[in-house]
Amino acid sequence: MTLVDEVKARSDIVQVISQYADLDTRSRTPKAPCPFHAERTPSFVVFPDTGTWRCFGACSTGGDVIAFVMRKENLQFGEALKHLADLAGIRYEPNERRGDYESLYKANEIAAAYFRALLNSPEGEAARSYLAGRGIDTEAAKRRGFGLSPSGIETLAGHLKARGIGAGAAKAAGLVRQGQDGGWHDMFRGRLTIEIRDRRGRIVGFGARSLDGSEPKYINSPRSSIFDKSSLLFGLNWAADGISASGTAVVVEGYMDAITAHEAGFDNTVASMGTAITAEQVGLVRGLASEVILALDSDVAGQAATRNSLESVWGAIQSHRRSSSAAGGPSTLEIRVATFDSGKDPDEVIRGDPSGDEWRASLKEAKPLLDYLLETVAGTYDLDTPDGKAQAAGELRPLINQVPNQYEQEAYLTRLAGLLGVSLEQLRMSAPRSTYRRRSPGPMDREPPGANDAAASALNPDSVNAPEDYLLAAVLQKPELREYAMGVSEEQFRDPVNRAVFTILKDSDTLEDAALSGVGDIADKIERLRNRALPPMDHREMVDAISDCVLRLHQRHIRTIKAEENRLLPTDGKALPDDPQQAAALAQRLVETNDRLQHLFARRS
Q1: What is the CA radius of gyration of the chain?
Q2: String of b and e for 265-284 (b: at least 16 CB within 10 Å)?
Q3: CATH classification of 3-88, choosing from 3.30.1370.10, 4.10.910.10, 3.90.580.10, 3.30.230.10?
C-alpha cells in the first residue's frame, strides 16, 4: 500500500470534513453548505463509500480527503499529506534527497552575500559606476540582487569552504568548476553578478556580466538540479503580485530590461534571461494572468530561433485552449507580441522616456501572436518564389490548423493565401491538414478510454489509468511538453499517486523540483515514470498523444460527475430531501453534463 493509499484508508473523510463543515449525516450522502463559498442551500456532498466530495454549487469542484485539506488549509500536496498522516498516526518520511537540494540553496545564499559585500567595497567601484550609468543606484542594486564576483581564481571557492560548503555542493550549484590542475576555480571571475530567484524567492543561480568588454558579455550558472533557464522567469518573485493585479505578464529578454521596468514602476515584467521564450516559461504565469505580452528586442524579432520559439508557444497554448474549451474550463492565456522602432530594446525605451508613455503605447499596440507570425513571414521567406511560398505555407499552415474556432481558422487561412498570392483552394491543397495520423484502435480504446495506441504500447494497456501514466511519463521525460498537459486538473486523475505526481508537477517551478518533491511511493513513481520506455515519436506525434490523453481524461471525469449526480437524484425526482427546487436544478445539470460528454466525444470523432 502506498503512503497516499494508507493516509486515505485511515482518514475518515466524513470526520475530517466535519471539522470544517456542519455535515448532515442522516443520509447516505452527507451534505452541508459548501465551506468554500457562501450559500443558503446545501450543495456540498460527501460520498463516504468512494472517499470523495463534490460541490454541486458555485465551486463545481471535488476530490478526495487530501484535496479537501489542501484547498481548505491552503496547503501544498506534501503539507496536506503530512497533516493527515500526523492525524492518522502514520510515520511521514520526506525525501532524503531534499537535503542535497537545500545545500545548493545554502551555497547560493552564501555566495550572494559575498558578492553583495564585494560590490560595496572599494574593489566594486568600477561595477558601481557601470550600474549608475544604467540608472541603478546603491539602493536599487541591493533591491535587485546585484553583486561582484572576485577576480581571484579561487577566492569564492575558499570563502565557501570556510563557511562549510564542500567542493561537491559548490560545483553542483554551479559556483566553481574543476580546472586542469585539479583545483576548484571560481565560475564567475571579475564579473557583475545578478541573483536569479525562483517564484518563491530562493536563489537558484546567477547571471554574470563582463565589465572589461570580454566575451561572452553575459554568462549564467550552468544547468543544475535547481537551475534551468528554460523553466524560469527572472523577476517572477517581484512580479507575481503585479501580474495578478493587472492580469497581464510582460516578458522581456534580458535581466536589465526587467530590472529597469520594475524600477520605473512596471511591476508586471519578467525576463526570459536571453533565451527564446518557451512554453514552460509561459506556463509559469498561468493562473496569474489572462494575457502575456512578449516585448521583443527589434534586433532579434525576425530571427529564425525567435520565430521557432513563438511557434512552440503557440502550439502549447492552442492545445490548452482546445482541451479547456472542450471541458467547459476557463479560457487560456492570450499571447501578444510588442516590438519597438529604431532598434531599441525595452531598457532603452523605458529609460529614454521617463513618462513611460512610449512603453505603455508599445504594449497597447502589441499584436496577437499568430498575427505577428503572419506579418513577419515576408521578411523570413522570399514570397516571390515557389519555394518561398511553400516554405511559408509549411510553417504557418500547421499553426493555423491548431486554432480551435473554425471561423477564426478560416480568416487566418484567407489572410495567408493573400500574403502568398494564391487562392484559398490552392492553399488548402498544398499540404495535408495534419502530419499526424492515428494508428488503428488498440486495447486502450476499451471503456474507460485511454491514450492512443502509441501510448498503449509503452504502458500497460490493461490499466484503466494508462492515459494518466502516459501523460505523466511523457511530460517528465520531455519537459518542453509540460504545457500541453496542463489542460487537465488534479481531480481528473483517478490513481491517487498519479494525482499526487501531477499536483507536484503542476506546482513545481522546475521538473527537478517535481522529482525531488515526492515522498515514499510518490518519489518511486516519479522515478519509474522518468525511466519508462516510450515508443519512438516525433514532436508532433507526442503532442497529439498527450492531447489525446487530456481529452480522454476529460471524458472519464465527466462520466464520474454524471454518476455522482445520478446518485443524488432518486427515482422520486428529489435531489435532496424536501427540496424540489434543487432537484429540478440538479436535473438540469444532468442534461448539461450529457451535452458536455457528447461534445467531448464529438471532438474525438
Answers
A1: 27
A2: ebbbbbbbbbebbbbbbbbb
A3: 3.90.580.10
Q: Is the pLDDT of residue 301 over 70?
A: no
Can you tell me the distance from the alpha carbon of 193 to that of 190, in angstroms, rounded to the nearest whole number? Answer: 9
Task: Name the residue among 279, 276, 284 with its Cα closest to residue 233.
Answer: 284
Instruction: Read off the C-alpha cell for 499.
Output: 494525482
Nearest C-alpha neighbor of 188 from the set 163, 171, 173, 206:
206
For residue 555, give the nearest of 492, 466, 496 by alpha carbon: 492
335 and 382 Cβ atoms separated by less than 8 Å = no
In this predicted model, what pLDDT tens digit does every residue of 27-42 receive, in sequence order? 888 999 999 888 888 8
With 0-12 / 13-18 / 19 or more C-beta atoms within 10 angstroms meaning exposed / middle / buried, residue 256 is: buried
Residues of the chain with CATH 3.40.1360.10: 236-380
Contact 50, 128 (CB under 8 A): no
Looking at domain 236-380, its CATH class is: alpha beta
Task: Please count the other Cβ atoms lying within 10 Å of the Cβ belonging to residue 209.
Answer: 19
Sign, CA dihedral 521-527-533-539, equals positive
Instruction: Fill in the amino acid letter for 545.
Output: A
- Does domain 111-227 sit in CATH 3.40.50.2300? no
Which class for 549: exposed (0-12), middle (13-18), buried (19 or more C-beta within 10 A)?
A: buried
User: Within 13 Å and on the Cβ side, how many CA atoms surround 294?
Assistant: 33
Quick check: pTM over 0.85? no
CATH of domain 443-604: 1.10.860
Q: Band of the pLDDT at 513, cuts 50, 70, 90?
A: low
Rounded CA separation 276/318 (Å): 19
The CA distance from 378 to 384, in Å, is 10
The average confidence (pLDDT) of the chain is 80
Cell of 534: 516510450
What is the four-CA torsion angle of 468, 524, 500, 1, rounded to 10 degrees?
A: 100
pLDDT tens column, 167-186: 889 999 999 988 777 777 89
| Measured distance CA(291)–CA(377) in Å, rounded | 23
What pLDDT, on a 0 to 100 scale, did the predictor assign at position 25? Answer: 87
**Which grid coordinates belong to 15?**
470526520
Task: Please report which helix (H) or strand (E) contains residue 328, including its range.
Answer: none
Residue with cell 495567408: 416
Spatial distance between the Cα atoms of 240 and 509, rounded to a whole number of angstroms: 13
Residue-wise pLDDT for 516-539, tens only, equals 555 566 777 887 888 787 777 888
Range(s) within the chain of domains with CATH label 1.10.860: 443-604
Q: What is the pLDDT of residue 570?
A: 55
Which range scores top for mean pLDDT: 140-154, 482-496, 571-585?
140-154
Q: pLDDT tens for residues 304-336?
A: 556 666 776 776 666 555 545 544 444 567 889
In the chain, which segments carry CATH 3.90.580.10? 3-88
d(CA 331, CA 334) in angstroms, rounded, equals: 9
Sole residue written with cell 486495447: 443
Q: What is the pLDDT of residue 91?
A: 78
Q: What are phi and psi of 196, to 5 degrees?
A: -110, 115
